[in-house]
Amino acid sequence: MTTEERYAVLVEELLGRPGIVQNGKGFGASALKARGKIFAMLSARGEFVVKLPVERVDALVASGDGERFDPGRGRKMKEWLALAPASPLDWASLAAEALAFVAG
């Protein structure tokens, strides 16, 4: 399954939930949002990206399971985790964590 296909499956699952939308322009154009806030997206580089508490991102980066997301401006974002396309981590679980974080 390609990264795009894997993301499409996740999007299909999440869009059925109340308050979850996928719209916008530019940064995060295909992003999943809750209450107007992005919680998960697929980057232009094919990375699955989620917004999580900085402590959680720190732990996942330290374990080698991801990197801080760089939107292309050379500045890594503290609360955003980017996973490589081949990451074995469960995207649905991370998206659920991210949703809870931005909705909380």
The end-to-end distance, rounded to whole angstroms, is 32 Å
Oligomeric form of this entry?
Answer: single chain
Per DSSP, the total helix count is: 3
Beta-strand fraction estimate: 15-25%
Summarize the amount of helix as a percent range. 25-40%
Q: Based on the structure given, which CATH architecture is correct?
A: Alpha-Beta Complex
Gross morphology: globular
Break the fold down into its secondary structure elements and pairings.
Elements lengths: L2 H12 L5 E2 L10 E3 L2 E6 L5 E4 L2 H9 L4 E3 L7 E7 L7 H13 L1
Antiparallel strand pairs: 1-2, 2-3, 3-4, 4-6, 5-6
Describe this structure in words.
With 104 residues, the protein is α+β, with helices and mostly antiparallel strands. It has a single domain, classed as Aspartate Aminotransferase, domain 1 (Alpha-Beta Complex). The protein is built from 3 helices and 6 strands. Strands 1-2-3-4-6-5 form a 6-stranded antiparallel sheet, with helices on one face. The radius of gyration is 13 Å and the shape is globular. The model has no long low-confidence stretch (mean pLDDT 88).
A few lines on this structure:
By secondary structure, this protein is an alpha+beta fold. It contains three helices and six strands.
